Amino acid sequence: MKGQRMRSYLSYMLATGLILLPLGGCLQTKVIDNLDYITAVAYDWENEKYIRGTVAVPFYLPDRSVKNATYQEVTQLSKEMREKMNKLTPNPLVSGKLEVGLFGTEMARKKGIMDVLDSWQRDPFIGRRAYLAVVDGNAGDLLLKAIKKKEIGESIAKLIQHNIEHGRIPDTNFHHFINVYYRENGDPWLPLLTLEQRKPMLKGMALFKKGKMKGKIETIQEMAIFTFMHWDRTESTGVKFVTKKGVMGFLRVTEIHRKIKVVQSGNMPSVHVKLDIHGNLEEIHGVRQATDKVIPELEHLVEKELQYQGQKLIQKLQRWNVDPLGYSEAARIHDRHFDAKAWSKQYPHIKVKITCRVHIDEYGIVD
Amino acid sequence: MSKQGEVALTNLQKQQDEKVSGIHVFFLIHSVQSGVGGLSFQREITEVAGHDSWMAVLLGGVLVNLAIFFMYLALKKRGEDVVALHQRILGSRLGMIFSLMFMVYFISTGAAVLRTYIELVQVWVFPEISTWSISLVLILLIYYVISGGFQVVVGISVLSVILPFYLLLLLVFPLQHADFTNLLPIGQLSFKELMGATKAMTFSYLGFCTLLMYYPLLKDGPRTQKFAHIGASYTTLIYFVVILISVAYYSEKQLLANVWPTFGLFKIVRFPFVERFEYVGVATWSFVILDNVCLLLWASHRVLKRLWPQSRSILFMVIVLSLIFLENILLTGRRDIATFNQWVTYWGLGINFLYLPLLYLLGLAKGWRGRAT
């Protein structure tokens, strides 16, 4: 009896095993060592219909050093590009470790980047944490000409990441870009890179209207103001200030409180931005007296300076008709009958008033 | 005489052994509710109700609790299941037909769940995998579980609540990128939109009517009602948290562009040792759906056994599973699957929120008439 049952169990197991055996051959195996991981890809304008794509693939040498192989193709579609490149590479190209997507300025301005991002969005293998960036000039060159001793994709990603973490630029990645892109109000932004001494450098911000680049912010000063006013950041970096008396200093910002009030006055809305900035003084030139004596005056001067620069920045944004600072979003959340289309028509002409309060809390370990 | 009594006693003892204790109702209700609906309910309801869709989640939860309340009301007096209920209210011939309707409903829902999960695997993990191979593996597993009887099914459902629990902790990652001002201004929807969204939401809550089949197998039936309500409320709570995070993480049109917004949430997760966490998520989700399919098919099998106690269960299971296997293969691509799911949803809605209330009313009327004569 027992033996019989045992035998029937065995035959069951054998049958199951026989059924499951061929399943092992159903899938194509992918061995991690035999794949070429694209870590960075760059898209450039070739002509009306074609884009020039460049990818960087790191490969590891036996002495633990890294080299980057780069491939370039001209195609119409982004996935077609990979198909073509597969004919060049020793191993199949995969996008599972894609960290950075770069766009040349011409491409971003003329064609827009949403066509390429369509394939990015559809692909389940591309992480939403990947970074996007615009390259001032030619994006492919950044991959081709940069020093190839490091993993180029990873080093660009790290460069962007630490600048986000320390508040130098507003939060940005693939998810953020499409998040803002799909909003009816507000416009996306991307970091702007350039090649400096054969190394990628963060130059500023590229500002988009929907999928197309409209303008850029380049100077350190403007970038600091931009992050001060951006809704996404609660902490930010430092800012240099110069007063008319020739006093120059550097303020490290520790805390920002932002209040945006949208008032509907007549037909035209007006925006009132209140900034409350706390910071520590880190460097100061041109002051003869004890520091604590000049602080109140300095606070006042810095406020004036920031208000002036903020006003100038907003005028620029209105001229480009982009709203990366999310004022329309601020209008929407308090208005049940918000009309996104009417707002975007009015946006270049609305009045934006900035009031700034600066508190210099500490000034280092010497007096 | 005494021998007969002994036999009856051992039968009773056996029945007692097969019964499961009250707390398991919590797991049974919660686990059968959280299935493939949890993958995409955000999209379905946000399509109708916009950023206020979380209201539909709560309203749907209230409706489900109401439905469970009425189920207990109908069943607890006599400790019967829906087959007995049908027999009592509709008579044996008509009752049998409607019981068979339940059987087909259970089977088709189970099939829909399984096919949706296979699609998930095909889209997110293995684009080249053939449908038949993965469905064969899952169907063998399901057969193994169901052939173990109700207690094994219950065990699986307990497991399917506990094991995937860690997925909830992963919601911390999208929370870092969430912007809760997306929820403002609150209450920007009309009553009609709210109703439409609630209707869309109920799909994700369905499955709890398997209670109608396993109620007699619960120890101390009427006292298990609180566990059932806690189970349904727990599902509501989880869906509520997920919808809040989804609305905050996605912008509205971005959410609508995602076919599986819940897995979209996992795409932002990254650990040093796992680059793409959805892989783990998809694997874990197999537990979430396994108990759904098992419980639903067990319920359909139970209908058969209650109608014809002499029938051979193996034969039935083989036929049903082959049908499901065939369905899995025949439905190719998202459009087919979506159409099938839609059809099952309407059916489920009709059964849970139209047919069952009517049945209760009929039973009530019959009771009154019986008392009058």
UniProtKB/TrEMBL annotation, chain A:
Subcellular location: Membrane
Domain Spore germination GerAC-like C-terminal residue range list: 203-364
Presence of keyword Signal: yes
Domain of life: Bacteria
GO cellular component: membrane
Assigned keywords, A-Z: Germination, Lipoprotein, Membrane, Palmitate, Signal
Principal location listed in the UniProt entry: membrane
GO annotation (BP), single: spore germination
Domain Spore germination protein N-terminal: 30-194
InterPro entries attached to this UniProt entry: GerAC_N, Spore_GerAC-like, Spore_GerAC-like_C, Spore_GerAC_C_sf
Record Gene3D superfamilies: Nutrient germinant receptor protein C, domain 3 (3.30.300.210)
Membrane association type: Lipid-anchor
Similarity section: Belongs to the GerABKC lipoprotein family.
Entry protein name: Spore germination protein
From TrEMBL, chain B:
GO cellular component terms, semicolon-separated: membrane
Main location: membrane
Record carries keyword Phosphoprotein: no
Residues that span the membrane, as ranges: 21-41, 53-75, 96-118, 124-146, 153-174, 194-215, 227-250, 279-301, 313-331, 343-365
Record's subcellular location: Membrane
PANTHER family listed in its UniProt record: SPORE GERMINATION PROTEIN A2
Family that this chain belongs to: Belongs to the amino acid-polyamine-organocation (APC) superfamily. Spore germination protein (SGP) (TC 2.A.3.9) family.
This protein's name: Spore germination protein (Amino acid permease)
Provenance organism: Marininema halotolerans
